[in-house]
Specification:
- The protein is α/β, with parallel strands linked by helices and 251 residues long.
- The protein has one domain (5-244): Alpha-Beta Barrel (TIM Barrel).
- 36% of the residues lie in helices and 27% in strands.
- The protein is built from ten helices and twelve strands.
- It has helices at 32-42, 63-72, 86-95, 104-108, 111-120, 154-164, 185-194, 208-216, 226-229, 235-244, and strands at residues 5-13, 16-21, 24-28, 47-51, 77-80, 99-102, 125-133, 139-143, 148-153, 168-173, 199-202, 221-224.
- The chain has an eight-stranded parallel beta barrel, surrounded by seven helices.
- A hairpin with a 4-residue loop joins strand 8 and strand 9 (148-153).
- Helix 8 (208-216) crosses helix 10.
- The radius of gyration is 16 Å and the shape is globular.
């Protein structure tokens, strides 16, 4: 049985880790390099770093932050934000990323997924899919750090992205992000049932119980931010609780 990965997420803006609710009301949560080092020491399986202001500001991802993170990390690093081309992705990989996340640019030009998979291998391509509930009780894709709703069905987009070459899907519930109400397990189940690639649960985690629920809904990995940044728990304690709940984790 494959172990469930526990992945801290560093949302970075102006060189600092930030966190809010539904991508708004951001508060400072520390230095990304310091945070990454702490989380690796606690037993994190991977780190995700998202430059959340790169796309709205029309600029490239902060490559210097990627390089600084790579200097202190031994575990895999996924980086996203502001990736609009294969060359953008190449620069992040050269700076030290192991995988590159794409969101807005992929929605606007899906062929980018296939181009990246052809050049780097699908194992390097992560579709960052932000999904919001609709009045019809399904989910639509949102882009530009949650600023724009697309009307595109989230489950259908996940399926198409996987077919095009996405090797993993980082699935964030916009409605649950930063709320501590738990992951949207219905969304997780719907997407994980529709794609063959691993799905990372994101948005709303406040406990190991929430993470276990995400695993039972089909997630291969769970992302966490607020509960770690705010010192409510540690990677080590979460893994201990998950193991007690019968979830296979790397200790």
């Amino acid at each position: 049985m494959l172990t469930t990965r526990l992945i801290p997420c560093l949302d970075v803006k102006d060189g600092r880790v930030v966190k809010g609710i539904r991508f708004a009301g951001l508060r400072d949560s520390g230095d990304p390099v310091e945070r990454a080092r702490i989380y690796e020491d606690q037993g994190a399986d991977e780190i995700v770093m998202l430059d959340i202001s790169a796309t709205p500001e029309g600029r490239d991802c902060a490559r210097h932050t990627v390089a600084e993170l790579r200097e202190v990390l031994q575990i895999p690093l996924t980086v996203g934000g502001g990736v609009r081309s294969v060359d953008d992705a190449a620069r992040l990989l050269e700076a030290g990323a192991d995988k590159v996340g794409i969101n807005t640019a992929a929605v606007e030009r899906p062929a980018l997924i296939a181009e990246m998979a052809a050049r780097f291998g699908r194992q390097c391509v992560v579709l960052a899919l932000d999904a919001a509930r609709t009045p019809h009780d399904d989910w639509e894709v949102v882009i530009r750090s949650g600023r724009e709703r697309t009307g595109r069905p989230a489950v259908g987009w996940a399926t198409r992205a996987s077919d095009l070459g996405a090797g993993e899907i980082l699935l964030t519930s916009w409605d649950r992000d930063g709320t501590g109400d738990g992951y949207d397990t219905a969304l997780l189940h719907a997407v994980s049932q529709s794609v063959p690639c691993p799905v990372i649960a994101s948005g709303g985690a406040a406990s190991a119980e929430h993470m276990a629920q995400a695993c039972h809904a089909g997630a291969s990995a769970v992302l966490a931010a607020s509960i770690l940044h705010d010192g409510k728990t540690t990677i080590r304690d979460l893994k201990t609780a998950l193991a007690t709940a019968g979830i296979e984790v790397r200790q």
